[in-house]
Amino acid sequence: MRRTVGLLAAVCATVAATGVALADSQPTARSVAAPVVRSGPRVGTVESVTGLIERQGKLVGGKKELTYSYPGASYVKVHFSKWALREGDRVTVSDPSGAESYTYTVPESLNDSWAMSITGDTAVVRLEQGSYDPLGLRTRLAGLGIGVDKVARGFPTEQIGEDAAPRNPHRSGREESICRGGDEKRNAVCYKAANPVAYKRAQAVPRMLIDGVELCTAWRWGPNNRLMTNNHCISNSYEVRHSEIWFGYECGTCGGSDTGRSTKVYGDRLIAVDQTLDYALFSVTGFEAIQRFGYLEMDPNPARAGQELYIPQHPRGLPTMIATADPGERNGNCAVDNPSYYGYAANTDISYYCDTEGGSSGSPVISASSHKVVALHHFGGCPNSGVRMDLIYDEVGRLL
């Protein structure tokens, strides 16, 4: 399958039990001490449609396309109910200009009959016929064509609820993720000159669109085809395969309104999963397309109280933002508040007051000095918290 992605337009915020479960067998949780629920903000809806393009016997005139337009939608994603074509035929799904375009030649190139999403409010489906019956016998072609039965469309960015990250089951009271002093997150590009190392590390932190309607954040671990997010985001092979991973989804300028060029790939294989430590390790298709975005390293050592941090993330599915400030700290920077905090079990997390929101689940919590990942963000609550990376590394380090 050929995938060509053009310039995307989006609204950018201007504010600154026995070890790991391997997915080669049926994934099972390490512990059932706490329920895991899908909690990424719902950012879209799926509706039924009826669309059909019949394949003609000869390449004669007439448009062979379907258009699905939803004014204000942030993305459009089509689902094929029928795929009965001849060798050489191609199906293209694109935006109206063709700047973002994905071409499919066989059903197996689809993600379980879902095409890749198109950023923006309109998707155009085209059938490009290849060879045809030289005798032009339409009876031989009866029933051939493609059909569309569902469309997922994204809500406008401003309508996506500012849900908190999942609530820590061991805390009570109001749960929030924007902590002391208001929202201190800023667009990643704002750090391009001020903190180029943090900006570069943020390139390895893609947006996840799960099952067409939910969001989380992920990050690339090491030089091989390995990515990580939360178990409460994806917990089985179905959810992995139904996930889109968007790299390069960031604002072009610090105060601008357009994103840069984005590269989208599908999730491929669930490699390891753990419920108590709330992680999911997986691979993607088209790995060669994302290698240029770099990768992050895990820190196998426990985090320290007062250790300064930053968190690249996709809150509410927005283009990459980085949380690095905390006015409640003496020096104004995010830092580890408690290096041995209660997550889904005792002493599994570190806590901090770095700002996060719904959609930030799965983000890497990075040391500001070593630039290695010290925790996997998963809870709101002020303090917010992430699973200790030294515990995760003990389980998955050999899988790199």
UniProtKB/TrEMBL annotation:
Pfam family, one: Trypsin_2
InterPro entries associated with the record: Peptidase_S1_PA, Peptidase_S1_PA_chymotrypsin
Protein name, UniProt field: Serine protease
Species this protein is from: Virgisporangium aliadipatigenens
Annotated region described as Disordered, given as residue ranges: 158-179
Source species, domain of life: Bacteria
The keyword RNA-binding is annotated on this UniProt entry: no
Annotated signal sequence range: 1-23
Sections of the chain in a coiled coil: none
Keywords, in A-Z order: Signal
Keyword Phosphoprotein part of the UniProt annotation: no
